[in-house]
Amino acid sequence: MKFRLGLRALAATTALALGALSLTACGSDSTEAAQDNPYNLIDPGTIRVASIGDSKPYTFTNAEGQFTGFDVELFTDVAHRIGIENVLFTGQDFSALLSAVANGQFDVGVAAIGITEERQQTVAFSDGYLAGYLTVLASSKKNITSEQDLAGKRMGVVQGSLQEAYAVKNFTDTDIVRFPDNNTAVSGLNAGSIDAHFLDYEAAKDYTEQYELENALDIPSFDAPAGFAIAPENEALRKALNKALAEAMEDGTWKKLYQKWFPGSPMPEQYLPKAEQNGAESTSKDS
Ligand code: SNW
């Protein structure tokens, strides 16, 4: 009697143990996967970033072929904060960036990409991290200082950029010429095949320092701050990046990088540590 009970108990225990084992096995499989790769990266431990090589000082390749710039350093800092050491930047045409992220060829797109509703049909975005102007860059000899001066002129835009969309809608008397990247357009500008090129403010400024070109016109683009582009289904990565980005703003890292890469540009308040925002200061004085 005792023996039989013992056997039954043993059988039951074995069955339970086996069940538990197999449960643990699949349980640990998926838990481990989630733990090893909580942000659903293409290669766990590495974050693959689609970027562009000629938008200095936002994102560009230096003489050694390394990606650097404000966006590159900010994103690298944020990636380290979520525990990813290996950040791999690859240059793409700007027009290919968002679909490459949406298709899963890259984990993130980082290239001063303005957040718009239209782009949100293709990708999800982190919170904004930079807002500024779109600038018409022109030859110093052309005397272009207003939208009217652009009538009948040839103006370059990078394909897929907000500048392209803005120009098509608003510069209706201007001949819009599409380029794959800024360098090609600026070569055209220097060679005289176009009269102006429409790009981001800080990138335009950089070209004015290199060539006989000037800032002809600034168009505010504060309603489309730049964000990191992420595949729409990767909510875990988006949330983690947002948290880390907020930390980088709050501890002054964002401010330090802004001063490093955009020296002399007015300091926007909204990305500074809360204690340094006037709004916050006056609120605390009021209360
Ligand atoms: O909308 C602006 C934003 O306010 C800030 O000034 C950074 O640039 C923008 O995101 C616009 N950037 C362009 C775009 O999103 C061009 C990006 C590029 O050439 N890499 O289409």
How does the SSE layout of this entry go?
Blueprint: H1 2-36, E1 46-51, E2 54-55, E3 59-61, E4 67-68, H2 70-81, E5 86-91, H3 94-102, E6 108-109, E7 124-125, E8 133-139, E9 154-158, H4 162-170, E10 175-179, H5 182-191, E11 196-200, H6 201-210, E12 213-220, E13 229-230, H7 235-250, H8 253-261, H9 278-286
Parallel strand pairs: 1-5, 1-6, 9-10, 9-11
Antiparallel strand pairs: 2-3, 3-4, 6-13, 7-13, 8-11, 8-12
Radius of gyration: 26 Å
Q: Strand-residue fraction? A: 15-25%
Bound molecules: Deoxyfructosylglutamine
**Secondary-structure element string:** HEEEEHEHEEEEHEHEHEEHHH
Coarse morphology: globular
The number of helical runs is 9
What does this protein structure show overall?
This protein has 287 residues and is α/β, with parallel strands linked by helices. Helix content is 41%, strand content 19%. It contains nine helices and 13 strands. The chain has a five-stranded mixed sheet, with helices on both faces. Strands 10-9-11-8-12 form a five-stranded mixed sheet, sandwiched between helices. Strand 9, helix 4 and strand 10 form a beta-alpha-beta unit. The chain is globular and about 60 Å long. The termini are far apart. The N terminus and C terminus are likely disordered. Bound molecules: Deoxyfructosylglutamine. Deoxyfructosylglutamine binds next to loops.
